[in-house]
């Protein structure tokens, strides 16, 4: 089997509206990588159901993530865009990896601890074994690189551990050890209400995040209400780093503007937040509004969406199936 040298897989859950963290930490980077790599972008609905999803909205959210990929600039003619549950090889390899990963490894996953909280006896088994399926998502394509936000770093380390253990156990070099691609000025976008918390779909406050479906007016309200501190903006990075809310807003600005943090700090040194926020509103609206309106257009064309996902499914299966067959052969299953 020919091994790829520059192949990407990444996934986004259809578990709620996409927010600025998903865009700046992941999707925007997917767009910039698509020329250089062969890409598989997956809407990970099997991961989404590790917590309750309303069956009446799940299909629509799955289409919405697909629309967001395309509206953000991912070319569906060049890249594989598909839905995880439509490619059964993910779940099949996921089971095999459940038998490779160790309980101790999964017990260390901080995202599980955060999500389960004090309720760990009552969450789904899927939420606990979630990272083994994520490893399968990546390795079923023998992907070499995985662009993600900073919060997925530990899951990628686990993916590398699974690949390594499989290779050692079966004395093979079949699975690549994939490299995370975590880059840009906003690898961890924080809540607009609390600079110590990650921006997330599950935060109860709508004002904690900017959604890709927000109107210009909503974006403006949310940025104007964003928490800051009483000081003017700092003139150096060291001072900025101890001021989490200021750091977050400046990182968002730099990332949206495709400029470095240093340059934005220099530009706004000593200025008041009110002026900075006004500029940030203009910038965010100018970058996000075209994506939102394109998303809406694509969502109105369900036939088109279906054809993209059908093509994606077929090409994904054509790559995934031989990898699964080879894995089963290595393990010793009957063919
Ligand atoms: P998910 O759906 O939570 O998020 C999708 C992507 O958005 C990034 N992200 C963020 N980046 C910066 N700041 C934030 N506040 C922020 N919130 C989310 C995530 O890092 C991610 O890149 N487990 C994954 C989905 C997944 C996956 C995979 C990813 C399943 N299989 C295989 C890569 C490869 C997740 O829950 O992402």
Describe the structure.
The chain is mostly helical and 335 residues long. Helices cover 55% and strands 7% of the residues. The protein is built from 14 helices and five strands. It has helices spanning 20-33, 45-48, 55-72, 89-98, 103-107, 110-116, 125-139, 153-169, 216-225, 237-241, 244-257, 261-268, 273-299, 302-331, and strands spanning 7-12, 38-43, 80-83, 145-147, 179-181. The strands form two sheets. The protein has a three-stranded parallel β-sheet. A two-stranded parallel ribbon has the order 4-5. Helix 8 links the parallel strand 4 and strand 5 (179-181). Helix 4 crosses helix 7 (125-139), helix 4 packs parallel to helix 14 (302-331) and helix 11 (244-257) packs across helix 13 (273-299). The model has no long low-confidence stretch (mean pLDDT 97). The structure holds tryptophanyl-5'AMP. Tryptophanyl-5'AMP is lined by residues 9-13, 21-22, 25-26, 44, 47, 134, 137-138, 146, 148-149, 151-152, 155, 187-189, 198-199.
């Amino acid at each position: 089997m020919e091994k790829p040298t520059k192949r990407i897989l990444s996934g986004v859950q259809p578990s709620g509206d996409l927010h600025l963290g998903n865009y700046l930490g992941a999707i925007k980077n997917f767009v910039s990588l698509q020329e250089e790599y062969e890409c598989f972008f997956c809407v990970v609905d099997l991961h989404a159901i590790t917590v309750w999803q309303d069956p009446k909205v799940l299909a629509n959210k799955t289409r919405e993530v697909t629309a967001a990929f395309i509206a953000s600039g991912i070319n569906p003619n060049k890249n594989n865009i598909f839905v995880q549950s439509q490619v059964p090889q993910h779940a099949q390899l996921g089971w095999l990896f459940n038998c490779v990963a160790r309980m101790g490894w999964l017990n260390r996953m901080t995202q599980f601890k955060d999500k389960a909280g004090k309720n760990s006896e009552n969450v789904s088994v899927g939420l606990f074994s979630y990272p083994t399926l994520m490893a399968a998502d990546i390795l079923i394509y023998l992907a070499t690189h995985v662009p993600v936000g900073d919060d997925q770093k530990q899951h990628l380390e686990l993916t590398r551990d699974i690949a390594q253990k499989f290779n050692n156990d079966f004395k093979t070099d079949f699975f690549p050890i994939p490299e995370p691609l975590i880059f840009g000025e906003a690898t961890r976008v924080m809540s607009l209400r609390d600079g110590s918390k990650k921006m997330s779909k599950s935060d109860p406050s709508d004002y904690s995040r900017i959604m890709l479906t927000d109107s210009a007016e909503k974006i403006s309200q949310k940025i104007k209400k964003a928490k800051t501190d009483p000081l003017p903006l700092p003139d150096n990075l060291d001072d900025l780093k101890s001021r989490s809310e200021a750091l977050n807003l400046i990182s968002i600005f730099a990332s949206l503007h495709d400029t470095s943090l240093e340059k934005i700090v220099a530009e706004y040194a000593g200025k008041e937040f009110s002026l900075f926020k006004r500029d940030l509103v203009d910038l965010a609206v100018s970058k996000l509004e075209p994506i939102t309106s394109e998303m809406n257009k694509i969502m109105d064309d369900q036939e088109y969406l279906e054809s993209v996902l059908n093509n994606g499914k077929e090409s994904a299966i054509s790559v995934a199936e031989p990898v699964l067959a080879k894995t089963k052969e290595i393990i010793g299953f009957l063919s």
